[in-house]
Amino acid sequence: MGLRSYIITRILLTIPTLLLLLTMVFLIMRVLPGDPVYLHFEKKATPEQLEQMRRLLGLDKPLLMQYADYLLGLVDFGYFLQHGYPNLGKSMQNYEPVGRQIFSAFPATLELAIYSMIIASVMGILLGVISSKSYNSVLDHLIRGFGTIAYAIPVFFLGIMFQLIFGVHLHWLPTGLRINPNVQPPAQITGLYTIDSLLEGNLFKFFESLKALLLPSLTLGIILSGMFIRLTRTNMLETLRLDFVTAARARGLKESTVTYGYALRNAFLPILTMMGLQFAMLLGGAILTETTFSWPGLGSYIVTRINYRDYTAIQGAVVMFGLFVTLVSLVVDILYAYFDPRIRL
Amino acid sequence: MEKIELSIVVLVLIGIIVSSGTMYYTTTVMSNLSTLTSDVSTLTENVLNLTSTVRDLATITGTLAEAMGEFTETLTDLEARLAAIEASLAAKAKETLIVGTTDSVEATLDPAQAYDYFGWCILQQIAGTLVSVKPGSITGTDFQPELAVSWNRSTDGKIWDFTLRQGVMFPDGTEFNATHVKYSFDRAINLIPSIPDGAPASLGYDQIINRTEALSRYKVRFVLKDAFGPFLGIMACRSSAIVDPAYAPMAQVNYTSGDPRGSTAAAFVAPYYLSEWDRVGDKDIEIRLDKNPYYWNATSGYPKTKTIIFRFYRDFSTLRLAVEAGDVDMAFRQISAIDALDLEDNPNVKVWWGSPGAPLQMLCFQENHAPFNDSRVRRAIAAALNRTAVCVTLFPGLANPTYSMVPPGMLGHTEAFKKLGDLNYTLTRSLLAELGYDETNKLKFDLWYESSGHYPLSAEQALMLKQQIEASGVIEITLRPADWVSYRANRNAGIMDVYIYGWYPDYFDPDDYVFLYWGPWLNLHYDTWSPAAYAEQLALYNEARYSANTTLRVELYSQIEDISVEQCSIVPLYLMPPWAVTKRNVKGVVLDITQDMRYWLIYIGD
Amino acid sequence: MNEVKIKRSILARLIPRLTSLTRRGPSGWMIIVGIVIVSALVIMTVIGPWVSPHDPSAILVGPIRASPSLQFPMGTNHLGQDMLSRILCGGSIMLQVAAFSVLICFIIGVPIGLFSSYVGGFFDSTCSLVIDALYAFPGLVIAIAIAAMLGPGVINMALSIAVVYIPSYFRIVRSQVLSIKELAYVEAARAAGSKWHTILFRYIFPNVIPSIVVVTTINFADAILTAAGLTFIGLGVAVDIPDWGWDLTKGRELIASGAWWVITFPGIMIILLALGFTFIGEGLSELQNPKLQR
User: What is the pTM of this model?
Assistant: First the structure.
């Protein structure tokens, strides 16, 4: 089928998946053990207080009505345009709009995810290609070893090693937060400190936020690169054995052209899919990294909300995350279909 | 490897070297000025460029004598100006104190609803109360006038009159008077909360205060429902902070992004005002306090530091690393005990210790679960404890074992629980033998502890307690962890056999400690199983509460504690001191029994 | 037809297979190394309680935070517990959690995958849709949420990890079954009148096993790291059970004050365990990948 029809079909398929996702989140939050309202009172709550809280949160309505409210709130574009964030209900702790909380925490996670992905993919793909070119050599084994070990290291272990070495002993980089405590963060336009400081024209702040980004992104990036190294290597090994590569070499093309122009280009698609998925996963908040580096992002937010049993907030965060992943899968699938016509069949 | 890979690797390496070089350059050049706002840093950059350009010009035209003379004159001029700027910048640097903390405002900065330590901490810097506790207080009851200059209590104790300070101005020019006090307390009682826990701020003002009357412009009267003794203590707490009616509707005031004034109901009559409050997600990102130009006590020289900036960290280890790296000037709540002790050896930082005061750890027994309804079992377990070992191992030199529910220094402190002793295994075994427990038939129960860091080192405490109690030979313990929300829910449902609990007082009076023995919200059902003892303690407590006679109160609290030793409904374990870590040049930190950090006393000096 | 069965001990049957692996090149060696590492750690954990010099939970057997010495080769932690004993005994929680989660995933994910892809049609599409939606859930978040709500304990941790992994099993099984289903011999069996369960279990399932094993080993490795992560957040087991994850968490707080040994040794152990399983999985997947054969 043509690309256009594939895209349309794919988008249409997303809708039931999304609906299913939203319904599942809604149900799970309501079937988990424990009365969510009861857990939020400092002292033993009277039935009236419990009922009041239920009413304020809309939990006293029949299940179907709650479901309708939930779905309608999500697609309420008027609310979104007015406030800048979607209607995801109110936090059970202090009735702040969950949407506002999530959207305020999101840029930090986005920034971390972007830089970690850059490091992970550049390192991973490069090393994977080098490793596949020198199959079975010492270099290959070293790189593979590095890749495997990197992925097996617990994030907070690596994190604190970096903090100690680069932060305390060498004193090169800050050990936490998004920017040095002595520096005023740049004016919030996108919420990404590096971009905002450039927009402000302040090079000093740009470097300070970059410095603060370096350790957490390196930690995450190195660990993720392990997976990219292996994936790239496997795909490249498969591709390099194919006939068209031999043919290209036989035609006298330079080795680098063969490797990068032909082989990598063809092997790239599964890597692209993985990159997309990993990026979506990172958007859910690299929880352990954010805790280790005091990074105020979505991951830390979700963890504290879980600790508080703030069901509305957890529900909102999981929904947002599910939406990201679905969206990213959609984009990746379309890109895949664009580059590889065989998929569209 | 091929050329293309090689070139990519080389390019990446060059890129790394160049960017790290630039970063290093910007760090070393800018690091002196990094404590300033960005405007000042760009200004200095321009000045530096100017001086270096001038220097270059001087060398180029060095052959011409007069020209050189002129240029060196300009050069010295500029250098002098630069030195002056640097001096004023350095002085400016001392005007800001950066504080790192792992706390965060929990829900709101509305005095009528805030009930968390950090919320109260910020309110103390920006809001005023009628009276406050003297900094450095040991007893917690030496009150000093703040917004009230004098007060007196009627003979029956039910009426309190306060004479208010005159000339206290709100930032908008309104003068503080009795109507504001009345409004604040009426509001505290009738607040429309947006938080499910309900008004008023868990301090129960509606149970204590009958009504508030503005007798005249500067005189206010509180008519109490009963002769509540520790009324001044309550007047000193943050829930009694005066609100500014212009910003305090009857509905609770919550955080509004970008609007610090609108995010709190408090009247800005204190050394600082809230100039910035940013939250991301559910936690604070930055709080900035600036010197209040309308502060009524500005002549005293307070606040000593013009600006306080709070930066928020997620856990203790990162905060400790930040202090060590010099990223923050001060770290308060929390650096772990081990880190604090370790930092004593660090020449760049100073560790400030307070005396063990308010946070109290205790052991609670659920009397609905047999055999804990029998006081012999409770006494047996209490006797097997070794408080000293826990304090020495986990908090060396810090925590002190306590044998009374009342902290040392406060009136009513006794050594009552020493009667049962520590490591008194003979008593344990004999008491349990009476009930038929011995080596072959051990007493088995669950010891619960909080596992998400709500109390410091609670898991380790539980482990030590388990081993101590089991060493008696006749007890077998299973440890059960639960995170804070579950722990609290379990407490409310009364399902934990024995558990470790902590207490932090609202006001500093034995009245707010001794009632823990039968604390109703602890759901220990002590009143059900020992009704006679409970009734007796309650009678003594009420008598002490409504008495103004200190000697009588001491005697009454001592009697209550004697009964508690017999009953062991709750066993006090140890007290923790507060501590703070600062850079060497930070002075004025006061850690007293109130556990409050009065930031206006702190300054950076040499 | 009489089948002559030659009984040999398990070891006698395993050894030739293992040695044959060495002839399969570096992938084979990876599998062997992985198996060696994992078996060594499992054996160490099993015999740990008998060979450890001190009771791993006993407090103050040595000075507090003592650096490694002859008396305490791995030093002591802030409670004076002997780290060597804790290392020897501490792997059991992780292994239990990983084993249980794999078991649960296997019991639930594999049958659903088999049936769904074999039956095909609407049932299969619905199942796929549901599993895809499940796949979009943030893994660690769900694990934390479930562990937090169920409470501490090995089974609860295993459950929370399993829920996150079932979609992977489903997907792998399904993709394999879909490709095997169309093969000639399966069609022949169907034409010959075999029942569906015979086809599924006799013909299809054995061919699916190799890829399941790969997923299982990756699942194991991930379960170990997730269990460490859950303990880091505070959702681990009670403190009197020696656990590498707990030592890792506490070690992180102690390392800044110079006690590097408390975090390093458990960290190395966890990495080794995860590595062992990863090696096995990697090696197996490489061996099976026909596209890599020269």
Answer: 0.83
